[in-house]
From TrEMBL:
Presence of keyword Iron: yes
GO MF term (any one): ferric iron binding
E.C. no: 1.16.3.2
Gene Ontology terms describing biological process: intracellular iron ion homeostasis; iron ion transport
Pfam families xrefs: Ferritin (PF00210)
Highest rank taxon of the organism: Bacteria
PANTHER family: BACTERIAL NON-HEME FERRITIN (PTHR11431:SF127), FERRITIN (PTHR11431)
Residues that bind Fe cation: E17, E50, H53, E94, Q127
Naturally occurring in which organism (per UniProt): Thermoanaerobacter pseudethanolicus (strain ATCC 33223 / 39E)
Keywords (A to Z) from UniProt: Cytoplasm, Iron, Iron storage, Metal-binding, Oxidoreductase
Cell compartments where the protein resides: Cytoplasm
Record's catalysed reaction(s): 4 Fe(2+) + O2 + 6 H2O = 4 iron(III) oxide-hydroxide + 12 H(+)
Metal-binding as UniProt keyword: yes
Protein name: Ferritin
Length: 173
């Protein structure tokens, strides 16, 4: 059974994952407007991942006898000055998600909630991958600078990204 504090934290994170999806829809839209379909695809897949993360939290809360609470979702930023600035904001957002997950782990450890701690470890590892992915793209974009040809090459690369159902959902957990 989840403590009230843990249940509230998990519900807030579920809602933040939905906000993350909303933010990435705004970023996808930025690239659609610029006809950069590969970049748009990258954020379309990212949106799907964030919604899957929300679903994982949803399922876990109910499996543990809790009740899901939905909060209003804040309107995300929609205007970005450049591709690089957008990716830096996405990286910063992922670092915030990491901090939030770590705080939940801290609560689980403090409360000796071993089940929730084990559950959250998947997200700890996922956030390492998320930050690494965004950091690599920021690094590439900094190298590219204002050179348009490499942007088109990167756009073609990002067009290949596909959504893969996260392991906890694929395994029915």
């Amino acid at each position: 059974m989840l403590s009230n504090r843990m249940l509230e934290g998990l519900n807030k994170q579920l809602n933040y994952e939905i906000y993350s999806a909303y933010l990435y829809v705004a970023m996808e839209n930025y690239f659609q407007e610029k006809n950069l379909e590969g970049f748009a695809n990258f954020f379309k897949v990212q949106t799907q991942e964030e919604l899957a993360h929300a679903r994982i939290f949803y399922e876990y809360i109910y499996r543990m006898g809790g009740k899901v609470t939905l909060y209003p979702i804040e309107k995300p930023e929609e205007n970005f000055e450049s591709i690089l600035e957008l990716f830096k904001k996405a990286l910063s957002h992922e670092k915030t998600v990491t901090e939030r997950i770590h705080k939940l782990v801290d609560i689980a450890i403090e409360e000796k909630d071993h089940a929730t701690n084990a559950f959250l470890q998947w997200f700890v590892n996922e956030q390492v991958e998320e930050e690494e992915s965004f950091q690599r793209l920021v690094d590439k974009l900094e190298l590219i600078g204002d050179n348009i040809q490499p942007i088109f090459i990167l756009d073609a690369e990002l067009a290949q990204r596909i959504f893969v159902l996260p392991a906890p959902l694929a395994q029915g957990q």
